[in-house]
Write a structure and sequence with these properties.
Elements: H1 9-17, H2 20-48, H3 54-76, H4 78-86, H5 91-129
Helix pairs in contact: 1-4, 2-3, 2-5
Length: about 130
């Protein structure tokens, strides 16, 4: 009989790092989708408001999103850290579930924020201009 101690820290790290590129590609796509939503909103607002500046807004949003991606990548490390603390059994089920949850939360957040901001800022212009 042999005792199983679970995956080694190296294999845990390799599993999570092996999926980081997919994670970052998802963040990249979500950022562009969210940005597109907000560009449409800014274009709508700029038709009715002289104070709307699309270029300044785009630069600000780009900087904020780069900071978001950096924070999301730091938080990505939590998958491996929590796995090391919990030592789940079966580990494959935990890994896949945790990765999917983190991926969809990280990818969904920018899109949800863009839709919310659009709704909050475009709705007043829509209702007042007809």
């Amino acid at each position: 009989m042999t005792a199983t101690t679970g995956p080694s820290p190296v294999s845990t790290w390799m599993w999570w790092e092996g999926r980081r590129l997919r994670y970052n590609l998802g963040l990249f796509v979500a950022g562009w989708v969210g940005f597109g939503i907000q560009v449409v909103a800014m274009a709508w607002i700029s038709r009715y408001s002289a104070g709307a500046n699309l270029v300044t807004s785009a630069l600000f949003q780009g900087l904020i999103y780069l900071l978001y991606m950096a924070a999301a990548n730091v938080l990505y490390l939590l998958g491996a850290v929590v796995e090391g603390i919990l030592k789940p059994d079966p580990v494959d089920t935990y890994r896949l579930g945790a990765w999917r949850l983190g991926f969809w939360a990280a990818v969904g957040l920018p899109v949800i924020v863009a839709i919310t901001i659009t709704a909050l800022f475009v709705a007043p212009f829509f209702w007042t201009t007809g």
